[in-house]
Structure formats: C-alpha cells, structure tokens
Amino acid sequence: MVPFQTRVSVQIPNNGNTAEVKVTTVPNKRRLVIEYVSCDITLPTGQRPFVFIATNVLGSGALIHRLFAEFQATFGPGDFFVVSQLTRLYADAGTDVIFGVQRSAVLSPIQSGANVTISGYLEDAV
After folding, report:
1. Could you tell me which residues come within 8 angstroms of residue 54 by beta carbon, excluding any fewer than 6 positions away?
2. Pick from 53, 66, 110, 115: most CB atoms within 10 A?
3. Distance (Å, rounded) from C-alpha 97 to C-alpha 111?
4. Starting at the edge strand that comes first in sequence, how are the strands of the sheet with 18-25 ordered?
C-alpha cells in the first residue's frame, strides 16, 4: 500500500454552470482507494452546489459518486460550502479520477469554484 493525497482546484466559468478537473490518472498495475474527500466551494449567494467524483471500475464506464456539500456562511456576495466526507471509492489502473462541481444558475457576478483534497492509498491491482 502506498499513501495517496492530492489537491486540485476548479473554477466555474462565469457563462457556465459546471466545471470538472482530472484529479489523477491511476498508475498502471495499481488501484486507487479513495477514503476521504475534503472540499471548499464558493458560489454566488442563493446558489447551491452539486458535487461529484467520477471513477471507473472493472470497465464500468464513469461511475458518478455524489458528495454532500454543507452550507457554512455568506461572505459578501458569495455563499461558502464544505464537503468533509469519509468514503470508500475505487478507481482502476489507467483510468482518470474526475472531480466536478455544478451550480444551480449559469450567469455569475462573482468567481465560483472549489478546492478539493482527496486522500487514500494505491494498492496492487488484482
């Protein structure tokens, strides 16, 4: 087992409502086990996030894992949410792990986006 931890950021364009970023590509002959996801999200006041991680296991195609984003506070024109979730997600060797966030409206007067940290471990693929 090899510990795995990474942090990525994603910005939602002002004329869009969804943004995705590749978190990692799982190395050959390994499987990634995701055990914890932590994320902070900033959206315009009144909007709500849909947060997900997409993985691929056993040739299944993209599996969408939804995460719960909890409202924390309003700072000026923006609402602040966090994800802090224990989980057990798998991603096969050679596949991409994708993090995405979607907001409830398209146009935005402020910058929207998220910072996510994913922790777990890499193990030998079976």
Report:
1. 20, 62, 63, 64, 65, 97, 98, 100
2. 53
3. 24
4. 18-25, 96-103, 49-56, 62-67
The residue assigned the tokens 């993209």 is 62
At 4, the amino acid letter reads F
Work out how many domains the chain is built from and give that number.
1
Q: 10 Å Cβ neighbour count for 83?
A: 20
Tokens of 85: 């979730």
Tokens 């994708």 belong to: 98
Kindly list the strands in the beta sheet with 78-91, ordered across the sheet, starting from the edge strand earlier in the chain.
2-12, 112-124, 30-44, 78-91, 70-75
Q: What is the pLDDT of residues 49-83, one digit of tens each?
A: 999 999 998 887 789 999 999 999 998 888 999 99
CA pair distance 51, 68, nearest whole angstrom: 7
Whole-angstrom distance, CA of residue 73 vs CA of residue 98: 27
Q: How far apart are the first and last CA of the chain?
A: 13
**Confidence (pTM):** 0.90
DSSP 26: P
